[in-house]
Design a protein that fits this description.
Elements (H helix, E strand, L loop, with lengths): L16 H8 L3 H10 L11 E5 L4 E12 L7 H9 L5 E5 L6 E3 L1 H9 L4 E8 L2 H7 L4 E7 L8 E6 L3 E3 L2 E3 L4 E5 L2 E5 L4 H25 L2 H6 L5
Parallel strand pairs: 2-3, 3-5, 4-5, 5-6
Antiparallel strand pairs: 1-6, 2-7, 2-10, 8-9, 10-11
Helix pairs in contact: 2-6
């Protein structure tokens, strides 16, 4: 497959700060359920997990990169373009097919922080974790693994801002990514508003259920009204 020379988007973050703030207050568990209620799967496979927590819940638009195995050495061009040219607040999502190599590291994190990106989600590995957590505590990393192996001579980037698959879920540029201790959820861009409404309803019901459980002293009684657990 030939290299794709698609340029990264130069548009500003497509979501308002108020929208991002609202999503930061909602758990990924509620969002995963909400996306499913709208007929899609939103949650990424559990192997994509929190490596560097950043500051609270990670929320932002996806910038996508695809990487494939390759024997020749060379720089991860599209990933570097994604870091240098994406809007502030973006989340770099790298489809590396689950490769057990580090598709992200300390220098890439430095570049991302310099460009005010929010974090990265990797279907592959990350290295320099001690450095990232120590020097860049605001930057969030979610990845399949931690591994010291370099990409050079093992993998190359072939696409930027095209649909990718990360953690068994399709991600398109501009989809909203939300991640916390439970994992990562992708919300299709066209479903952001209805999913938010549904997720807020779910959170309110769960608060009411919690009150019923504590008040009644019974899990079954507390659950019976909403038939949800």
């Amino acid at each position: 497959m030939s290299e794709n020379n698609t340029s990264p988007a130069h548009d500003p973050n497509p979501y308002t700060e108020e929208t991002l703030k609202t999503f930061r207050a909602i758990t990924t568990a509620s969002l995963a359920d909400a996306v499913e209620q709208h007929g899609q799967r939103g949650y990424l496979a559990g192997v994509i997990h929190q490596i560097a927590p950043g500051e609270g819940t990670l929320v932002g638009p996806a910038v996508t990169v695809r990487e494939i195995p390759a024997a020749e050495a060379g720089p991860p061009t599209h990933a570097l373009d994604a870091i240098d040219e994406s809007p502030a607040g973006s989340i770099v999502c790298i489809d590396a097919g689950g490769a057990d190599i580090a598709v992200w590291g300390g220098l890439m994190t430095a570049g991302a922080v310099a460009r005010h990106l929010a974090g990265c989600v990797l279907d592959g590995g990350v290295r320099d974790v001690t450095e990232i957590n120590r020097d860049f505590p605001s930057f969030a990393v979610y990845a399949r693994s931690t591994v010291p192996a370099t990409t050079l001579g093992r993998i190359r980037t072939v696409a930027l801002n095209e649909p990718v698959v990360v953690g068994d879920v399709d991600i398109r540029p501009g989809d909203l990514i939300v991640a916390d201790r439970d994992g990562v959820v992708r919300i299709p861009a066209h479903l952001v508003v209805p999913v938010l409404d549904t997720a807020q309803e779910i959170e309110e019901r769960e608060k009411e259920q919690t009150r019923l459980i504590l008040g009644s002293g019974s899990l079954r009684e507390g659950l019976s009204r909403y038939n949800r657990i």
